[in-house]
Amino acid sequence: MSTRPELLAPPEIFYNDSEARKYTSSSRIVEIQARMSERALELLDLPKDDVPRFLLDIGCGSGLSGETISENGHQWIGLDISASMLNVAVEREVEGDLLLGDMGQGLGLRAGVIDGAISISAVQWLCNADKSSHEPRWRLKAFFGSLYRCLSRGARAVFQVYPENIAQRTLILSQAMQAGFSGKLVLDYPHSTKRKKEFLVLFTCGAVPTSIHDGRDSCSEDDGDDDDSEDDEKNGMVCVTDRNRPRKRQRTNKNCKGREWVCRKKEQSRRKGNDVPADSKYTARKRKSRF
Length: 291
Description:
By secondary structure, the protein is α/β, with parallel strands linked by helices. Strands 3-2-1-4-5-7-6 form a seven-stranded mixed beta sheet. The N and C termini lie far apart (76 Å). The protein has helices at residues 11-14, 17-25, 27-44, 64-71, 83-91, 136-150, 166-178, 225-235, 259-271; strands at 54-58, 75-80, 97-100, 114-120, 151-161, 182-188, 197-203.
């Protein structure tokens, strides 16, 4: 059983010079990275008008996913915390601009300049506290808040994630929703142990098409695919969920002070010898907001 890299060391330490070159020289990793990047761009659902878009690659590493963006005719800017990974990207002469920074401290980008964002296997790193000053909740809040601000109106962000447990998935989703995003989870190949991939698709505004099933299935060409998809959704295996903020409940005054209560209090005050106005049809009647 392979050990998750985020449990071994912080990303800027784990991806040193040797690991960065090993990662980029692996043909298997390059193929997987390209396939997941293509899927992320597909879920990004950019307009088919042949107009280049300005995209953000979060956790760009050595620029493997950025190459996929360039092949699709778009401009991009990449952010990564590993200087070694970015040095390899410079050596490979990728077409995008590169930024060295920690996404957990927020994205220092101008508001509304990004047409879309993708991230491949990066966001779950924020769920780990690598330093005593790191609090995963606040780092995710800073990241999603700054991402929401820099995205243009109607833009999407697609994250390929592999959270370690349900708690991490819940933490990521809750912080994204608190930042103002709506969205859905898409699970590809739910019946395959090796090919199963989880994508978080976030929207900056607008309705979420919850009726559309975006998940891919390894048995999608079979006639009995519809029944399997329904069972998967019931079991939570193919998860396409939306986020709708619940309406605020109106406060109800349980200690409603009606006529009986007012009359009882007035009678108690009379017994104490106080001067109390006589009861009338207007006693305890609610006044209008203005006369």
